[in-house]
Amino acid sequence: MKTSKKLNFAGVFMDHEKAGIYEPFSGEEDVQYHFSSIPKHGTRPELQDESNANRGSVLHEYKSNSKTQNAIKKYFSELSDLLRDYNHIVVFGSGVFISEFMNYLENDKHFSDIKVTSKTSDKMSTIAFKKAVKNFFEEDVAYRKIVI
Predict the structure, then answer these.
(1) What is the mean pLDDT of residues 121-146?
(2) Nearest Cα to 133, choosing from 34, 36, 35, 32?
(3) What's CA 142's distance to the chain center, in Å?
(4) Is the pLDDT of residue 69 over 80?
(5) What are the pLDDT digits (tens) for 1-51?
(6) Global pTM value
(7) H or E segment and range at residue 34
(8) Which CATH number characterizes residue 49's domain?
(9) Which run of H or E residues covers position 20?
(10) Are 146 and 7 in contact (CB under 8 A)?
(11) Cβ atoms < 10 Å from Cβ of 20
């Protein structure tokens, strides 16, 4: 983990399965991928009688939701640990998932001085993601003032 805070920028593309982190001006062209442990929604086990089916399905749904929420919180925590040394971050991904992540970051005191911008997008190839991140920061007024 980085020890000193430098002027740096990062782009993140995330969904429920993985997050790609890219530093567009670091000289490193690779995207670092981090995979989530969020459980996939599967089928419910067959239950034997109707009265147990209602109780069992509610209990199963509660446990599934609880496990999913805990996994999402852990995933967000791991990502925020990786991102807290950046000065400006742009996050790409699906609207609902990004909204949840942005809410998580707003409640994290480590991100109070970090500019985080979200951009709703569909899945992108690695090349498209890298281009979108570079374009975002090159067009960003704050970035231009710092570089020029």
Answers:
(1) 83
(2) 32
(3) 23
(4) yes
(5) 444 445 689 999 998 888 999 998 888 888 988 888 777 654 334 434 444
(6) 0.74
(7) strand 32-35
(8) 3.30.420.60
(9) strand 18-22
(10) yes
(11) 21
CA–CA distances in Å: residue 34 to residues 14, 76, 81, 144? 9, 11, 12, 30
In a domain, 23, yes or no: yes
Determine the Cα–Cα distance for residues 109 and 114; give it in Å rounded to an integer.
10
Cα separation, 15 vs 96, whole angstroms: 10
Average pLDDT over residues 73-80: 92
Tokens standing for residue 73: 């919180």
pLDDT at residue 56 greater than cutoff 60: no
Q: Is 4 part of a structural domain of the chain?
A: no
What is the spatial distance between Cα 32 and Cα 129, in angstroms, rounded to a whole number?
12
Residue 77 covered by a domain: yes
The whole domain housing 132 covers 9-147
Q: What is the spatial distance between Cα 89 and Cα 72, in angstroms, rounded to a whole number? A: 20
